[in-house]
Amino acid sequence: MLKLTNTLTGSQEVFAPLDGSTVRMYTCGPTVHNHAHIGNLRTYVFEDILRRHLHSKGWALKHVMNITDIDDKIINRAIEAGQDIKTYAEPYTRAFFEDCGKLRIERPDIITPATDYIPEMIDLVQRLLDAGYAYPEGDSIYYRISRFPNYGRLSRLDRRELKIGARIDADEYEKEEPSDFVLWKAPKNEKEPHWQAPFGAGRPGWHIECSAMAMKQLGETLDIHCGGVDNIFPHHENEIAQSEAVTGKPFVRFWVHGEHLLVEGEKMAKSKGNFYTLRDLLEREYDPLAIRYLLVSVPYRKQLNFTWDGLVAAQRSLERIKEFLFRLNTARLGPGSNPQLDAEAAAAFENALDDDLNTAQALAVVFDLIRKCNTALSDAVVKEDDRKRIFRFFQNVDERLAIVPPMEAIVQGDEQIESLIANRNEARRKRDFASADLIRQQLLDRGVVIEDTREGTKWRRK
RNA sequence: GGCGCCGUACCCAAGUGGUUAAGGGAGAGGUCUGCAAAACCUUUAUGCAUCGGUUCGAAUCCGAUCGGCGCCUCCA
Q1: ipTM of this predicted complex?
Q2: What residues contact A42, with CB distance under 8 A and at least 6 apart?
Q3: In CA terms, which of A77, A293, A428, A448 is 20 to 30 Å from A396?
Q4: Gyration radius (Cα) of chain A, Å
Q5: CB of A308 nearer than 7 A to strand B
Q6: Nearest nucleotide to A161 by CA–C1' distance?
Q7: Cβ-defined contacts of A82-85 (< 8 Å, 24+)
Q8: Of chain A residues 129-148, which have a beta carbon within 7 Å of strand B?
Q9: Sign (positive or negative) of CA dihedral A155, A158, A163, A169
Q10: What stretches in chain A show pLDDT beneath 50?
């Protein structure tokens, strides 16, 4: 039974799709004007874990992610570069999915670029105008939040509590109330991209795209809507206001938000010099799997403090898993079965993830099993059938968390390496340890680690 | 000012009322080894920011204090 913390109620609730079979999930995607940073990626990794977990429950999943390919930054930079916004945004969109791929984040089922849904957005704005939830002011259209009594429910912010006048955009001074937000922006000049609409030429405000795309692809009530906590207000609050004003139905059943990542205890910011993209980390030769491991090791609802020490520790943890799989794979086992070895592991792993995606607990289950099996291997009580079962368990762990080192890195036939090892063992037999150590160093230089065990010399790739 | 989250060992971190407070990293001891830089095992909090309260029983609930972080119309 999967429990998720719903921001709407602030408490854990048992999740099941509304129609009993298909989960309709929408996750806020990137604004493609630069490369994703590790904070962004933490959120996408959390959503990926959720996605994989929902699949494992036997439900079908329809997962939609938007690409925001129109906003002020994109427009300004595209104009500077003398490109149209699609041309400007395209490489960043491609880079985003490349980064996701490196972190083993699965691709959503449907990807919706905002600029492909302009007619749907125009339609929504028109319906909000017709129903009196929106009003024109100047050449732009605004949402009248005084018409929507539930405004502030998600973020627990009373309208009166909003600090008035803190940051009001220069072109929005004509609003009826400072907290009203823009649905449709009149172009400031001819260079800005704009579309014709019955209520005037312009471009969509930020929030309307998600309402339009989510409802177009998933219907008027979604099962799950995810994003980072910073999106609770105003973005998701505004989505609710827009969508529910038009449909009269609940827009989202479960709002699930991922906490932020900090770097060395501080908010990541370009001005602080602690701002990292995935590319920055890969340039420093960190393993993408270790980065994913670090992001998975802290449950999504807790702030994650990213540190270099933490990343090194994550890499070491991964090596422990790899070493165990190597040992299990190369061990000489007798026939039979010893089922109590892993009797509780699969259920404990499942329960951990069912408990609001407690990935830290799930990893603890994995390491508990490793320690138990290592001891059992030393005592020679692991049998052939156990190996198969335990490998199956790890296969499941990998399908769910995607943090298990690939077996190809562990198991490999290579005659050249095996003959070097044979030479080394011959040297050892003759007690020519200088030659033996030389060969060991040669192998190490090629990324091959050797281990002398009671069962003979074993090797694996680093 | 308003709303909210958090503080568990050297570091990361699970646990949110009931046996000896998970797990990972690091350190220390040991096993194996020609050697080990590998691997494996064991070990490391009478203690859960502090102080008070509730309770037969508190890391867990309540209150206060201290400290950190977030949101309050750019934001994952």
Answers
A1: 0.95
A2: A258, A260, A261, A295, A304
A3: A448
A4: 27
A5: no
A6: B2
A7: A84/A193, A85/A115, A85/A193
A8: 145
A9: positive
A10: 163-172
